[in-house]
Design goal:
Elements (H helix, E strand, L loop, with lengths): L7 E8 L3 H8 L13 E7 L2 E5 L6 E9 L4 E7 L6 E10 L10 E8 L6 H23 L2
Antiparallel strand pairs: 1-7, 2-3, 3-4, 4-5, 5-6, 6-7
Length: about 140
């Protein structure tokens, strides 16, 4: 029996596109506004720095995106203040062939860590939102 992880949530989905296309999409700060429920109406405010509005009414969210294209990893430093951005979300894209899947596919995995003091209902909302975001990413990438 699996033990629930109260500190980290992961969500993964297979996408029918190559890993490079997926990495480019999830590393694009403006396009992230298409799928990140906690930060829509995305605006670029600096190099690799964005702001958006939460669909949940919790205010402005700031995001710094650090993409490691070579390793297919995107780090998202997020927060409600530019002075307090934390790396609590990371996406890793695994090429399909690495896992014995078709070469024209990939697995997109979003990992999120829970900050100390996050209320249970806020953490549940984050987890459910991120699982939904996986389906949005899949739909956007497969419709291209």
């Amino acid at each position: 029996m699996a033990v629930p992880d109260s500190w980290c949530h992961t969500g993964s989905i297979e996408v029918q596109c190559d890993a490079k296309t997926a990495v480019d999409y999830v590393a694009d700060g403006i396009k992230q506004g298409e799928w990140a429920l906690g930060s829509i109406d995305r605006r670029q405010i600096g190099e690799d720095l964005f702001e958006g509005t939460s669909m949940f009414g919790v205010g402005t969210e700031y995001i710094r995106i650090r993409a490691d294209h070579e390793n297919h990893v995107i780090y998202y430093d997020v927060g409600h203040s530019l002075d307090d951005l934390r790396t609590v979300n990371v996406i890793r894209v695994v090429p399909g062939a690495t896992l014995g899947r078709p070469a024209a596919s990939c697995i997109v995995t979003l990992m999120s860590w829970r900050s100390e003091g996050t209320p249970e209902d806020a953490w549940t909302r984050t987890c459910v939102s991120h699982e939904t975001e996986m389906f949005i990413i899949k739909a956007r990438l497969e419709s291209k």
